[in-house]
């Protein structure tokens, strides 16, 4: 039983898939996270969340 070039096509497809996964690998691949350590990202994200909560509280106080 011969398969023709089916195996070669499957290998090429898998190789392309693996390359795409490597391009999009993890949060470090994003431009906003380049060069930042995990601790730096956590600190930045915590500050953003504090600001967001503060704005929400202010909006709640203003309408209530």
From TrEMBL:
Transmembrane segments annotated in the record for this chain: none
Gene Ontology cellular-component annotations: cytosol
Biased composition (Basic and acidic residues): 1-31, 39-64
Superkingdom of this protein's organism: Eukaryota
Domain Small EDRK-rich factor-like N-terminal as annotated: residue spans: 1-31
Disordered: annotated segments: 1-64
Pfam families, per database record: SERF-like_N
InterPro entries: SERF-like_N, SERF1/2-like
Family membership noted in the UniProt record: Belongs to the SERF family.
PANTHER family on file: SI:CH211-39K3.2-RELATED, SMALL EDRK-RICH FACTOR 1
Name of the featured protein: Small EDRK-rich factor-like N-terminal domain-containing protein
Organism: Megalurothrips usitatus
Taxonomy of the source species: Eukaryota, Metazoa, Ecdysozoa, Arthropoda, Hexapoda
């Amino acid at each position: 039983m011969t398969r023709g070039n089916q195996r070669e096509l499957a290998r090429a497809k898998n190789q392309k898939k693996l390359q795409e996964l490597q391009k999009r690998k993890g949060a470090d691949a994003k431009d906003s996270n380049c060069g930042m350590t995990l601790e730096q990202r956590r600190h930045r994200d915590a500050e953003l969340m504090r600001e967001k909560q503060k704005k929400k509280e202010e909006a709640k106080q203003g309408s209530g």
